[in-house]
Amino acid sequence: MKKSRALFEEVAAPSAAPTAAPGAAEKRKARARRLAAWWFMGLAALVAAMAVLAGALRVAHPALSAVGWAPVVEALPPLSAEGWTAAEARVAAAGGSTGAGLQIGYWLAWARQTLVVVTGAVWLFGLIGLAATRALPRGAGLAALAPGAVGAALVGYGWWTARAAVPDALAPLADAPARGALYFALWAALLGLLLWPAWRFMRSDVALLQARRRRARGAMAWSGAVVAVACATIALGGLVAGSGDAARAWLYADWPLMAGHLLPPDAFSLSPGWRNALENPALTTFMHRLGGYALVVLAVVGWAVGRRAGLRGVARWTGIAALVVLAQGALGVAAAVLWDAPAAKFAHQAGNVALLWLVLRARFETAYPAEQSIRG
Question: Is 153's pLDDT higher than 50?
Answer without folding.
Answer: yes
